UniProtKB/TrEMBL annotation:
This is (pine wood nematode) hypothetical protein. Pfam families: 7TM_GPCR_Str (PF10326). The keyword Transmembrane helix applies. The chain crosses the membrane at residues 12-34, 54-73, 85-107, 144-164, 191-216, 222-246. It comes from Bursaphelenchus xylophilus. InterPro entries: 7TM_GPCR_serpentine_rcpt_Str (IPR019428). Keywords: Membrane, Transmembrane, Transmembrane helix.
């Protein structure tokens, strides 16, 4: 299941690299800009970026309770069958597809009026590639954000319930576990808890601002950048959680870092030594010529 999560994170990173999103809060309108120079103002381009980004942002949340359910099934005889877990995964995929299919109706394509607003915010002409969340143009924006919040709330409710049940099972059978099994279970617990904790801070708070900024007519020049960076830190931190919580991965990573720095240090040392030798030879030649002249 960690492999599936890592694969989703990889797709998430690729989609972010393709679209390069930015957010501008302009009073009662939320602008989501795509700063990849290859993305054009065509409705197909801007809405394709919006759908792909939204899909993987919330898929990375919906996969979290599935991880907990799968782990509960492994440690408990009363857990779900693997086929049931696949059905839950299929339901999540289907719901997200339906959710994203409404985005071209929920958000507005670029037009002259929105262009003027963004120019007044200091956005250059070449960066006017965006979708606009305008509550006056379409009230469906509010149910859209309600659906986003619903996915997060349901996911974390399921995580809490399944985590409590899993801990009860582990405590019951802990005395029968070997030391290595007990350690492996603790490592797994730390990893999935960290991966579940990150989105609470990095995704929920930005989603809150995205949802309520158009309603309360909130304006900010810099909060959008902070929110975008926050949302897209999740894949990096998920990978770090695995590396930090598994001793063998941690040692391998640490050795790799030391190897890189040692190579750089060796190169610098070698360069400095060769420079010193070169200067010494030059000085000796210079000294010899002066002595001959005298």
């Amino acid at each position: 299941m960690l492999i599936l999560n890592a694969f989703i994170d990889l797709l998430y990173v690729i989609s972010t690299t393709i679209s390069v999103p930015n957010v501008v809060f302009a009073s009662d309108i939320l602008f989501i800009l795509w700063e990849n120079p290859f993305v054009t103002r065509r409705p197909f381009d801007v809405f394709a970026c919006m759908m792909i980004q939204t899909y993987f942002i919330y898929f990375s949340v919906l996969i979290l309770p599935i991880q907990f359910i799968y782990r509960y099934s492994v440690v408990s005889s009363n857990g779900c069958k693997f086929s049931t877990i696949l059905k839950i995964l299929a339901c999540c995929i289907t719901y997200l597809l339906v959710h994203c299919s409404f985005l071209s109706y929920t958000y507005q394509a670029p037009n002259a009026g929105y262009d003027k607003m963004l120019r007044e915010k200091g956005i250059p002409e070449e960066d006017l590639v965006y979708v606009a969340g305008d509550k006056h143009a379409n009230w469906w924006l509010l149910p859209h954000f309600g659906s986003c919040m619903l996915m997060v709330i349901v996911s974390y409710t399921a995580i809490i319930i399944v985590y409590i049940k899993t801990q009860k099972v582990l405590r019951r059978f802990e005395i029968h576990m070997t030391a290595s099994t007990r350690q492996a279970q603790r490592q797994m617990t730390r990893i999935i808890l960290l991966q579940a904790f990150y989105p609470i801070i990095l995704l929920c708070f930005p989603s809150f601002f995205f949802a309520f900024a158009p309603i309360i007519n909130f304006k900010s020049d810099y909060l959008g950048i902070v929110c975008v960076i926050s949302i897209h830190l999740t894949p990096i931190l998920n990978s770090m959680a695995v590396v930090l919580c598994v001793p063998s991965y941690r040692r391998t990573t640490w050795r790799f870092i030391l190897l890189i720095f040692n190579r750089d240090a060796a190169k610098v040392s070698s360069t400095e030594t060769s420079n010193i030798k070169s200067l010494t030879r030059t000085a000796k030649r210079g000294g010899g010529s002066v002595q001959t002249t005298g």
